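Lecture notes, part 5. Sequence design as translation. It can be helpful to think of inverse folding as translation between two languages: the language of shapes and the language of residues. The source text, in structure tokens, appears below.
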């Protein structure tokens, strides 16, 4: 490859030197300082050598010492005050001074001290300097100038000496060819070095970006992820895992050890089993925290083992709350049951209507009391079936129906008095019920017909379990604070069992064999659609414990949404 080809190659790549487009000037700066320090060291050696020769009486004059001292001063000045800067396409003053100083100094030493010491090997320094830190043009230019100087020195010596001077020209030519070869090889190695460095930087940047993406994904995962070493030290943990492991709402420092908590012992055992068997593990474990913080987790482990054995293996542990898994399964099952129940209800409705109509026609022609008693039984059970069908169909209607944003405000006290009065007359429960309105007739966002359905479901439920004494059922409204009203329906029934409380607002769940278990579920759905909140608590009223269902309403002036994220402060 000719020098012209190499120069064209560099031009085609759009660069004039190996370091011009590098993204890490620190590499060029380090090499530059190494070369400048080497120049200072060579200058010091030359000064010491000339001083020794002068002391031994080998120098005819003091010019060599003067040249070496001047060269030492120049190299120190550039090393101390020079700034590493890649040479441009044209030779700038810094590089002319740096390389030119070396070439001129070594040439002068050979001229003023000819015959005693051969300074030709020192020319390798400026050739290497221009080749490694400069473009190929500067490298070949330096090699060419050194070659011309060697040839000029051989020609001058041939004029001064008598005899055959071909050996001197041959030595100068061989040295010049060697310098050209050194320039070519050093420049290509420098180019290769810069390409590899830029590739490494791009790879490092891509790996860093991928790491950031992975961390972002892991941070946003709902499942907990732990990265554990063979000693049980957690190297990395996402927020979900901290939430599942911590006994309090405290972000633990990382890394931390699984041995610090006794409740984490099942996790440590599963980790050790993973490392021992060198295979993935899966298990359901319990974290034995004091109640009510105990947790049941579904844990899966995977072993991240080094293929070459140069790095330690890590255990990646995936944590999932079993309560959330069971809730998702339960939600899916309820959705499937709801769709199936709605389809069955549609199919039952028409035959049921035909049975009711036929029973009514038959009852008109019957006069015997025993026979009319049978038709009454058919009528009552048909009505019961019709009610169940309506409740099942109401679920799908409630789920599909959204409250109109432009719906007018509902005056809570007036609506509650109207519904309770009608219900008490229909169920002959006037003597057993007490109504108190104290919400200043707050205007709330709720559909009147939906509020009637909500209250009738809650009142029917209260009547089913209340005693026959006066005041066994209490209905009250109150203004909790500006913008938030509350409706309470209390009865003096027995406390609910824990199994009932767990599934209180779920569909198709009831402690009564003759109930569909849809009333409270419909109440919850209606409240959620209107931005209200329904709940249950066991409270004391007039020295009597009872069951209270309460509903929190947003004011009609408030934006649509749940009234509160936490209702503990409102429970009385």
């Amino acid at each position: 490859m000719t020098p012209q080809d190499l120069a064209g190659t560099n031009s085609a790549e759009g660069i004039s030197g190996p370091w011009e487009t590098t993204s890490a000037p620190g590499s060029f700066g380090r090499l530059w300082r190494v070369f400048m320090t080497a120049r200072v060291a060579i200058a010091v050696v030359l000064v010491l050598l000339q001083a020794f020769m002068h002391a031994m009486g080998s120098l005819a004059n003091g010019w060599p010492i003067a040249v070496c001292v001047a060269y030492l001063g120049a190299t120190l000045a550039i090393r101390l005050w020079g700034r590493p800067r890649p040479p441009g396409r044209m030779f700038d003053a810094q590089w002319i001074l740096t390389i030119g100083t070396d070439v001129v100094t070594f040439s002068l030493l050979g001229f003023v001290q000819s015959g005693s010491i051969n300074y030709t090997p020192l020319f390798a320094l400026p050739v290497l300097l221009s080749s490694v830190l400069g473009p190929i043009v500067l490298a070949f230019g330096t090699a060419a100038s050194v070659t011309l100087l060697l040839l000029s020195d051989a020609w001058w010596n041939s004029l001064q000496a008598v005899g055959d001077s071909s050996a001197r020209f041959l030595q100068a030519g061989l040295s010049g060819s060697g310098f050209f070869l050194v320039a070519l090889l050093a420049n290509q190695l420098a180019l290769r070095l810069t390409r590899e460095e830029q590739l490494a930087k791009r790879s490092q940047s891509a790996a860093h970006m991928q790491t950031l993406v992975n961390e972002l994904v892991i941070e946003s995962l709902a499942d907990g992820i732990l990265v554990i070493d063979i000693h049980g030290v957690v190297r990395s943990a996402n927020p979900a895992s901290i939430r599942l492991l911590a006994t309090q709402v405290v972000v633990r420092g990382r890394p931390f050890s699984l041995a610090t908590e006794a409740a984490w012992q099942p996790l440590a055992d599963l980790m050790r089993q993973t490392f021992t068997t060198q295979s993935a593990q899966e298990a359901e474990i319990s974290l034995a925290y004091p109640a009510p913080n105990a947790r049941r987790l579904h844990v899966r482990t995977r072993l991240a083992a080094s293929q070459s054995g140069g790095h330690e293996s890590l255990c990646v542990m995936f944590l999932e709350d079993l309560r959330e898994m069971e809730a998702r399964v339960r939600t899916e099952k309820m959705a499937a049951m709801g769709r199936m129940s709605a389809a069955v209800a549609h199919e039952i409705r028409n035959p049921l209507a035909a049975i009711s109509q036929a029973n009514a026609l038959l009852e008109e022609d019957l006069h015997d009391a025993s026979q009319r008693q049978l038709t009454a039984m058919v009528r009552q059970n048909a009505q019961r079936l019709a009610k169940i069908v309506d409740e099942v169909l109401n679920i799908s209607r409630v789920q599909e129906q959204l409250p109109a944003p432009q719906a007018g405000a509902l005056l809570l006290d007036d609506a509650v008095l109207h519904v309770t009065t009608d219900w008490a007359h229909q169920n002959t429960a006037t003597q057993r019920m007490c109504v108190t309105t104290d919400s200043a007739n707050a205007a709330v966002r709720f559909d009147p017909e939906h509020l009637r359905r909500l209250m009738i479901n809650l009142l029917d439920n209260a009547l089913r379990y209340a005693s026959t004494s006066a005041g066994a059922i209490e209905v009250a409204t109150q203004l909790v604070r500006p913008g938030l009203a509350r409706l309470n329906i209390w009865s003096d029934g027995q406390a609910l069992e824990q199994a009932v409380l767990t599934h209180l607002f779920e569909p198709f769940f009831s402690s009564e064999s003759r109930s569909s278990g849809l009333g409270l579920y419909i109440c919850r759905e209606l409240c959620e659609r209107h931005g209200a909140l329904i709940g249950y608590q066991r409270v004391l009223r007039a020295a009597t414990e009872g069951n209270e269902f309460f509903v929190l309403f947003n004011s009609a002036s408030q934006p649509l949404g749940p009234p509160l994220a936490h209702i503990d402060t409102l429970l009385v």
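The translated text above is only one of many valid answers, since several sequences can fold into similar shapes. Residues 347 and 498 are 36 Å apart (CA to CA).
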